[in-house]
């Protein structure tokens, strides 16, 4: 199933944020990506409208193994329009985002699908001390079958509804809490992958200017697949830390102990560590280097009836050649181990690895018009040498801002 790539940058259900308050997002290879717009002090105020046009060349749109089949190449043209609205009113903030687009395959026209994204979030104070941050999102898009390797088509729909709250102080202890509900709905033939997940989190934070922010928390995630009569439950005890070590370096870290169980004995349990660590630095002038590593549990995958244990490492660098031109490179190594009931969804492999490398360049022609170019290479292999594939994507896009 497609990542929610990294987008990605996305975090699965057991990813504790570096700072518990306000961090309820997701991001992994071949998991659904859910991006929630968050109001920030740096956000531009008011309404912005951005029409865009992107053309992508993909040399293996069905993700087939070139040794056993003939990869199909195609060009996907996506016209889209995005509207954003941010407004800070004193200590309150509102952020809204909407995107409408259409992925048009020039040759494989049956794969063409509309794309819709709606997001909203806010920040409101209670009793002048505690902040409540609601969020909601809806996303509809064509599925990317990196795990199925066939010409099957599926239009997926994702929704999120949640709220987090904290009584953060500049120094001292304060409580934090959060709830989030995620749903995944699929088209005909893929109803078995429909899923509803609920996340509950409670903890105690501590802040000190010389230390940063430290949060101890407990988190529970229940993931229900009614079509398969399978329910997974995850319990995690964690400690997160966030600090700007210097004006040019920041650290976000989360360490937790995870206990994952299923009502299906064939799926089994997982007891072990999980983590999310991200370090960003500007130690080299004009170059931002970011490294991250994580181990998380991924629930919604079209492969696993149970869950997947995902370990990923990523390194990226972004360099400003000038005020108008930026280039970046990245590399990501991902390993997944699938816990599933073979009697329900038989597969010939139990784990895989996916390596991705890429180059991104952005050129700002005017204050309102920009071009971007990206090149990425994807390489997947399984432990049984089945469903392997390689793919190259080249994308050119143009964006206008109003």
Defining traits:
mainly beta; 19 strands; disordered N terminus; globular; 18-stranded antiparallel β-barrel
Task: Describe this protein's structure.
This protein has strands at 6-9, 46-58, 74-89, 92-105, 113-126, 130-142, 155-166, 172-185, 195-208, 212-225, 230-246, 249-262, 270-284, 287-298, 307-320, 325-339, 351-364, 369-382, 389-400. The protein has an 18-stranded antiparallel β-barrel. It is mainly beta and 402 residues long. The radius of gyration is 21 Å and the shape is globular. The protein starts with 5 loop residues before the first strand and ends with a strand. A hairpin with a 2-residue loop joins β13 (270-284) and β14.
| Low-confidence residue ranges | 1-41
Radius of gyration: 21 Å
- The residue fraction in helices comes out at under 10%
| Most strands sheet | 18 strands, antiparallel, barrel
Number of strands: 19
Strand content: over 45%
- Global geometry: globular
Please tell me the overall pLDDT: 85
How many helical elements? 0
Give the end-to-end Cα distance, rounded to a whole number of Å: 35 Å
Q: From the helix content, strand content and strand pairing, which structural class follows?
A: mainly beta
Order of helices and strands: EEEEEEEEEEEEEEEEEEE
Would you summarize the structure shown here?
The chain has 402 residues and is an all-beta fold. The chain has no helices and 19 strands. It has strands at residues 6-9, 46-58, 74-89, 92-105, 113-126, 130-142, 155-166, 172-185, 195-208, 212-225, 230-246, 249-262, 270-284, 287-298, 307-320, 325-339, 351-364, 369-382, 389-400.
């Amino acid at each position: 199933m497609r990542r929610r790539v990294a987008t990605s940058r996305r975090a699965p259900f057991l990813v504790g944020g570096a700072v518990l308050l306000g961090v309820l997002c997701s991001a992994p290879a071949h998991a659904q990506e859910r991006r929630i717009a968050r109001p920030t002090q740096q956000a531009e105020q008011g309404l912005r409208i951005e029409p865009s046009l992107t053309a992508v060349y993909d040399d293996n749109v069905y993700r087939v193994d070139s040794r056993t089949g003939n990869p199909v190449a195609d060009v996907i043209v996506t016209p889209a329009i995005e509207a954003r609205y941010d407004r800070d009113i004193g200590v309150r903030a509102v952020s809204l985002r909407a995107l409408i687009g259409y992925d048009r395959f020039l040759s494989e026209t049956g794969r063409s699908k509309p794309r819709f994204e709606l997001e909203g979030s806010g920040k409101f104070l209670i009793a002048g001390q505690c902040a409540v941050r609601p969020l909601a999102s809806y996303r509809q898009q064509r599925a990317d079958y990196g795990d199925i390797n066939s010409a099957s088509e599926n239009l997926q729909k994702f929704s999120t509804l949640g709220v987090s709250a904290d009584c953060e102080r500049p120094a001292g202890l304060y409580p934090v809490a959060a709830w989030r509900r995620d749903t995944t709905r699929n088209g005909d033939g893929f109803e078995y992958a429909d899923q509803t997940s609920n996340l509950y989190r409670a903890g105690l934070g501590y802040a000190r200017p010389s230390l940063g922010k430290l949060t101890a928390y407990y988190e529970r995630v229940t993931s229900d697949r009614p079509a398969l009569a399978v329910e997974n439950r995850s319990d995690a005890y964690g400690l997160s830390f966030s600090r700007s070590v210097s004006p040019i370096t920041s650290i976000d870290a989360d360490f937790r102990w995870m206990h994952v169980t299923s009502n299906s004995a064939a799926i089994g349990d997982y007891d072990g560590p999980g983590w999310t660590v991200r370090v960003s630095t500007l130690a080299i002038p004009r170059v931002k280097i970011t490294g991250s590593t994580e181990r998380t549990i991924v629930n919604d995958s079209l492969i696993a009836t149970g869950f997947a244990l995902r370990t990923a490492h990523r390194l990226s660098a972004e360099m400003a050649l000038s005020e108008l031109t930026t280039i970046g490179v990245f590399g990501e190594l991902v390993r997944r181990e699938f816990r599933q009931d073979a009697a329900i969804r038989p597969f010939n492999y139990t784990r895989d690895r996916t390596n991705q490398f890429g180059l991104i360049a952005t050129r700002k022609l005017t204050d309102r018009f920009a071009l971007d170019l990206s090149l990425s290479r994807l390489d997947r292999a399984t432990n049984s040498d089945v469903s392997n594939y390689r793919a190259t994507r080249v994308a050119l896009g143009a964006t206008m801002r109003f």
